[in-house]
Design a protein that fits this description.
The chain is of the alpha/beta class and 302 residues long. It contains six helices and twelve strands. The strands form three sheets. It has a seven-stranded mixed β-sheet, with helices on one face. The chain has a three-stranded parallel β-sheet with strand order 2-3-4, covered by helices on one side. Strands 1-5 form a two-stranded antiparallel ribbon. Helix 1 links the parallel strand 2 and strand 3. The radius of gyration is 25 Å and the shape is elongated.
Length: 302
């Protein structure tokens, strides 16, 4: 797998796995450079390997092939979002099965013939968008990611469309792909909104809420510090079947406009999608949105 800072080009040779020579590909077991330290974070590992590759360039390696003989850290992958500057030689990561096959004997030599080339690829991502327009001054955006969230979103749209208690707000429903593509799609929406974001009251993001179950009736909520109004509102919304509590999550994954009040809702379990749990979440969301209808526009924390 070529890393994002790899050069395009060819390299070949029959290097010894354990020996690094000039004008030859270098095969480097990253476990040898962790120094017995605990498993590094993804960021610190990438930075460490980049520095090793930089040094290999200075020492006249023709290419670098990283691998991990112990599996003590996750496999690396090509990350187009990395900000590391490109190097002048190919730099690749050889994943577990291939590394075990070709680099098992560190005293052996390996016939290396490689070529790295990059080309742009455009992914077309589709959002299923529904809009309930009550001609209200403010709009609430509700996003959904996995299959359970999307099922809950459909039921929630039915509830809001027919309920008079929800008519003081407009609603924009957006579904995103799960995982990294979902983050890219939500970022694209922020940069190319279909409505005026100045008229958005708040964003509520469902990400894994469908896994709430009677056995684990917990709903994690993050983003309560995005508006001084959230603690007051959440304190008024109660559900005997649901345990609701704040949970620290990586809010860098929430790629909506940071100036908007937002909540991110997720289950506290990793089980299967549960119909009963989905209905509980829909009821809780309905109560929350009814409370928001009576509150008016939320203020944002600076």
């Amino acid at each position: 797998i070529p890393l994002s800072y790899s050069a395009q080009g060819k390299a070949q040779g029959e290097p010894l796995i354990a020996v690094q020579e000039q004008n030859s590909p270098w095969i480097m077991d990253i476990n040898n450079f962790l120094g017995g330290q605990p498993q590094p974070t993804d960021t610190s590992l990438k930075t460490a390997l980049y520095k090793l590759a930089e040094k290999a360039v200075k020492d006249k390696a023709s290419a670098v092939l990283f691998y991990n003989s112990t599996g003590s850290s996750p496999d690396l992958h090509f990350d187009p979002g990395e900000k590391l500057g490109p190097l002048s030689i190919p730099v690749l990561y050889v994943r577990g099965p291939a590394a075990q096959k070709y680099f098992k004997d560190s005293t052996a030599s390996v016939n290396v013939q490689l070529q790295v080339s990059f080309s742009e690829k455009t992914d077309t991502l589709y959002n299923v968008i529904a809009h309930i327009d009550h001609h209200a001054p403010g709009t609430i955006i509700i996003g959904a990611h996995d299959i359970g969230d999307k099922a809950a979103l459909i039921e929630l749209a039915r509830l809001l469309k027919g309920g008079r208690r929800y008519q003081k707000m407009n609603y924009l429903f957006i579904t995103f792909p799960d995982g990294k593509n979902g983050q890219l799609a939500s970022r694209y929406f922020t940069e190319h909104p279909t409505i005026d974001l100045k008229k958005v009251n708040c964003v509520i993001d469902m990400d894994g809420t469908g896994k709430v179950s009677p056995q684990s009736p917990g709903l994690q909520i993050a983003g309560t510090d995005s508006s001084p109004g959230w603690p007051v509102i959440l304190n008024k919304v109660k559900d005997k079947k649901l345990r609701v509590y704040p949970h620290a999550v990586d809010t860098s994954a929430l790629l909506y406009d940071r100036k908007l009040p937002f909540l991110s809702l997720s289950a506290d379990s990793t089980g299967a999608i549960n119909d009963s749990g989905l209905l509980t979440v829909v009821k809780y969301m309905g109560d929350l949105l009814r409370e928001l209808n009576g509150t008016g526009k939320l203020a944002s924390n600076p």
